[in-house]
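README: folding subset

This subset contains proteins for which both the sequence and a predicted C-alpha cell string are available. Records are stored as plain text. Below is the entry for ABC transporter ATP-binding protein (143 residues), shown exactly as it appears on disk.
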Amino acid sequence: MAELKVRTRETGASAVVGRTGLPHVKSLTGGELDIVTNPSQPGFGPLDLLYASLASCLVLSARIAASRFGVLDRLTEVSVKVTGEKAHDEPSRVARFDIAFIIKGDFDETVRHAIAEAAEEEICTVSNTLRGGPDFVSTVSAE
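--- output ---
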C-alpha cells in the first residue's frame, strides 16, 4: 500500500430541528443546507448525504489513484453513482452500497479497475470509515 499523505482541515457538521419543520445542517467549513424528509421533495435527505459523501470521496480518490499510477494526464472524467439497500431488520441501517464507477480516459480495463479498487479500498476516507466500524462517542446536555 502506498504511503498516505494526510492533509487536514477542520471538519464536522451540526444539525438542528425544532418541534416542527425540517432539519438544517451547517458544516464547520461554512456550508449550509436544509434537509428534506418527504420522499417527493427535491433535495437531500440524510441517506442522500451519506451516498453523496461516498460518491464525492470516491471520485476524488479515483483522481488521486490515477495520479499515483502515473495516468492522470490520460484521465478525462470520473463519475460515481452510489445507491444502496436498507436492511430489512433492526436496527435501521444501510445493508449494502451499490457503487458504479465510470472512468473515462485513454487506458485499458485493467487500469480502469485498478483505479476504482485503489479509490474504494485504499484512498477514500469515507469508504474506509464505513468499512471500519468507527467508535461513536456521544455527549448529551440541555444546552
